[in-house]
Design goal:
29% of the residues lie in helices and 23% in strands. With 155 residues, it is of the alpha+beta class.
């Protein structure tokens, strides 16, 4: 992607000022064993690990798989809410995410393909509207409007 705005603008300086408490969403990640980590979010716990061929024990999805899952589930949620709002069945709604890693450095996801399977019998007009709504989910919007990210060591 040459000549895009993100390539031609200067990198952002991270905003390390504290977030207002009312807007902060907090999750904690702690080491479990080997390459496995537990993620605590609002009383829910997720695990992440690495495949055996990458040194892990393959007890859970990788962080990168959860990244793609986050996008796919956000799209599914928005699509489902569209169907519900219009009194349509959600049975048969399915979202598939496929992603490819970049072959150069830095390590990153190079591409993501999302395919939405709609419930049977959905009209072309409704399908187009569902796609428009799903394309504006929070995670998708965040990827298109990159957040400021600050990484720091605790004192």
């Amino acid at each position: 992607m040459t000549g895009t705005a993100s390539e031609t603008t200067a990198p952002r300086t991270p905003d390390t000022s504290p977030m207002p408490a009312a807007t902060a969403h907090v999750l904690d990640v702690t080491h479990v064993d080997g390459d496995a980590y537990a993620v605590d979010v609002r009383g829910h716990q997720l695990l992440v690990d690495q495949p055996e061929d990458a040194g892990g024990t393959d007890t859970a999805p990788t962080p990168t798989e959860l990244f793609a899952a986050s996008l796919a589930t956000c799209i599914a949620f928005y699509a489902g809410r569209y169907l519900k709002r219009h009194g349509l069945e959600r049975a048969g709604l399915r979202v598939r995410a496929e992603f490819a890693m970049a072959t150069d450095r830095p390590a990153r996801v190079a591409s993501v393909r999302i395919a939405i399977s709609t419930p049977p019998g959905l009209s072309e007009q409704r399908r187009a509207a569902l796609l428009a709504v799903a394309s504006h989910c929070t995670v998708h919007n965040t990827l298109h409007h990159t957040p400021t990210i600050g990484i720091e060591l605790e004192p």
